[in-house]
């Protein structure tokens, strides 16, 4: 009996060891990637709902691994979030995006507002207003060119004074958006307490907008909510003209999606900015 137990225990811990080893390995490679500057930002344009005007861009991280090629964020951000790496990455993204804005300004390009994704851990374990203030000072950019995308779960995390932190960020002049709106666990009460600028309707709702009356009802409600609270509303993941058209009819302000542009490299975006 004892032997059997020991056997199953060691089987179990072997499995665990493999998972842990793989995670540590990825962590180590990621740490090296950060040092070797193998991380970069792509920028996906955001458009006024009629598609006539670029209203901003969202910075999306990529890992350019010399051996494995381009690694998407879903493959390394969740791992980074389980270690202190996410703090380092978050800080790097904030700095890189702001430095890019400054560089575009020097080049005389029409600089779009840049939205940056903030992970819940970054909000929780680093005092974000200090990091943002530091980056603004280092790069000298206008604060309203920077938008922070926060998720509902990050805002709802217990044990932090979120309201105070958001007010400090607002005082710096940066814009605040709620990412993946409608998918997290949160109460609507925070919408009136927090100083917010934009609701981003999650792609899952956009996907079903034309097929499901429930998804449609949710999208419609988010748009009305945004209007009544004086917040901008942006729909994510718009792939078809029929979706854009319906969103426009419902009064949505902005959209982002493959319909008009995928995330672009700096060179590709600069070509687009210079074209108009
Ligand atoms: P997200 O913030 O919801 O970003 C939107 C994702 O949807 C991006 O994927 C984007 O490329 C993709 N997307 C945009 N339009 C369309 C469309 O029309 N169709 C389809 N199928 N996809 C579309 P990506 O770049 O792979 O990023 C995935 C997630 O990784 C992001 O989701 C975000 O949660 C996270 N992420 C990306 N960059 C960062 C970062 O710098 N920091 C942190 N903490 N997370 C990041
Ligand atoms: Ca986002
Ligand atoms: Ca999103
Ligand atoms: Ca998402």
UniProtKB/TrEMBL annotation:
Residues 23-276 form the EAL domain. This is cyclic-guanylate-specific phosphodiesterase. It comes from Marinobacterium halophilum. The lineage of its organism: Bacteria, Pseudomonadati, Pseudomonadota, Gammaproteobacteria, Oceanospirillales.
